[in-house]
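Ticket opened by: R.M.
Priority: normal
Category: complex prediction / small molecule

The reporter submitted a protein together with threonylcarbamoyladenylate and asked that the result be attached to this ticket for the collaborator who will pick it up next week. Submitted input follows.
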Amino acid sequence: MRAKMIKIDPADPDRQAIKRAGEIIRSGGLVAFPTETVYGLGGDGLDAGSSSRIYRAKGRPSDNPLILHIARLEDLYKVAAQVSASALRLAQEFWPGPLTMIFPKTREVPYETTGGLDSVAVRMPDHPAALALIRAAGGFVAAPSANRSGRPSPTMAAHVEEDLGGEIDMILDGGMVGIGLESTIVDLTEDPPAILRPGAVSQKMLSACLGRVEMDPGLEREDGGLRPRAPGMRYRHYAPRAPLTIVEGERERVAAYVDSQVREKIQQGQQAGVLACEETKDLYQAGLVKCIGSREADDTIARHLYQALREFDQEQVTCIYSESFDTPRMGQAIMNRLLKAAGHRIIKLPDGGDRD
Ligand code: TXA
Ligand code: MG
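Result attached by the on-call engineer:
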């Protein structure tokens, strides 16, 4: 049976719909719901069976822990064995919001939810429908992104239906999400605190609150000796079906290089997609060019990235080229996802400069 799709007003969701969805989760079922970052696949996070169902529905490796979503700060103490002063400061500053924190877990939290770890990831989303659902479901909703494992995270209900419609009970359709990339994950159990996954709450914002905050060195390279500390960041992820290559350098040079590659592919009978932005889209002459936003307002790029990757899949392109989006605010998060989608395939073109 396909999941029941119910449209809701994200700012003021229908109470009956939320109540039904809450009952489904309380009785061990799965409901996909919108958050401010991406759609989540929710189940009862304190119930081992529900968490196991989430892994099965997504086809997710069982050692990749889930994020536990709460709606009230006091509920944190039921699942976190220790809450440091720094954690509390971040919660006060950024919750509800796109920030996930890692805590030592209490016995209430089953190992099925934490992928066998003694720590638990907790977040309070900034979305009225998500918060209402968490309350209706009993307060503790385990929710990974609602995509089939390995696919780009869903930024609208149709993406969830496409990936998981046959596996889950209900989808709450609250329209397109606001941010479009998953929450920042920060580990405060070590000193200095480390960002395990960059997101809309940036390193700069965290440092302004806590002082020194590091990026997990394991994020930097894929094949280095260091493994990312968040298990989920170790998998190839966020990936479109066609191989993606990032091309970095001066705008005109990038466009000329991409054009030449795309023309070559087209001659071989392939279909090529290009990820570009407002500032550069007119420089490209070949291939299926998608403008995903503006560098000036880089939240627009974050918001449309996953959608564009999914569209390329549907349009059956056989290869994708993207410029690098090392923009000031969302750049760390955008490039982290883009590099993963590309399997770290990046071509750095030399600058033209005076040598020409
Ligand atoms: O924005 C988000 O965080 C979305 C929405 C739905 O809230 N959720 C999300 O969940 O992105 P998911 O499961 O797709 O990603 C969770 C990430 C994984 O990389 C996982 O390994 C990491 O969080 N994680 C969870 N618990 C952890 C823990 N105890 N220690 C380290 N990493 C953890
Ligand atoms: Mg995910």
